[in-house]
Specification:
196 residues; alpha+beta; 4 helices
């Protein structure tokens, strides 16, 4: 199974991301927009592993969130990988309780290392991917200013109350995401883990 661990964006926040993507599509029609049903904030990409690893991954997530209560982050800016000037990916960064995301991600990484799983050595940057480019693309200063204006709106906070373990399964040339487990924040008890 192809596993990843992420914060799912609640349905009540998806209209805001739809509005961001609508404006983005007007400015940069060649951008390939992320399916709204799949937007999330990845904490760790585990990759292809045996199905039996699911139980251990749930344990890693559970221990990573034990003392962390639900929190909020708010969409704040647009950036890109590898850079905003020549992006292959455009993403929304957030403000708010970012420290909690960083703590959870670090603990998850340490848990994956304990399982001898490969980890991403790059610096973790919390982000929500909103678009990708199939070909080389360069942003000029005017477009960068336009992206800043998109994020000038007031956004409702994103309430984070759980971490989810996902499977990413190939389907018709794309990948379909399926929730395998939901672990509530500050969970110390098995009843706070929901399996699908």
């Amino acid at each position: 199974m192809r596993f990843f661990i992420a914060l799912e964006i609640p349905n009540e926040n998806k209209a805001a991301f739809q509005a961001i993507q609508d404006r983005l599509h007007t400015l940069i029609p060649q951008a390939r927009l992320t399916n709204l049903g799949k937007i999330h904030l990845t904490l760790a990409f585990v990759g292809e592993q045996p199905e039996e690893l699911k139980k251990e991954l749930i344990e890693v997530i559970s221990s990573s969130v034990q003392d962390i209560p639900p929190f909020e982050v708010t969409p704040a800016y647009i950036d890109g990988f590898p850079s905003i000037h020549e992006p292959q990916v455009l993403w929304v960064g957030t403000k708010g309780d970012i420290d909690k995301i960083l703590i959870i991600a670090r603990r998850i990484t340490e848990g994956l290392e304990d399982l001898n799983l490969p980890i991403d050595e790059r610096r973790f940057i919390p982000h929500i991917t909103i678009a990708k480019f199939n070909n080389h693309f360069q942003l000029n200063r005017e477009l960068e200013d336009d992206l800043d204006k998109i994020m000038g709106a007031t956004f409702d906070p994103i309430k984070i109350s759980s971490i989810k373990l996902f499977e990413s399964a190939p389907q018709n040339g794309l990948h379909k995401h399926r929730v395998l487990a939901e672990i509530k924040l500050a969970s110390e008890y098995p009843e706070n883990i929901y399996l699908s």
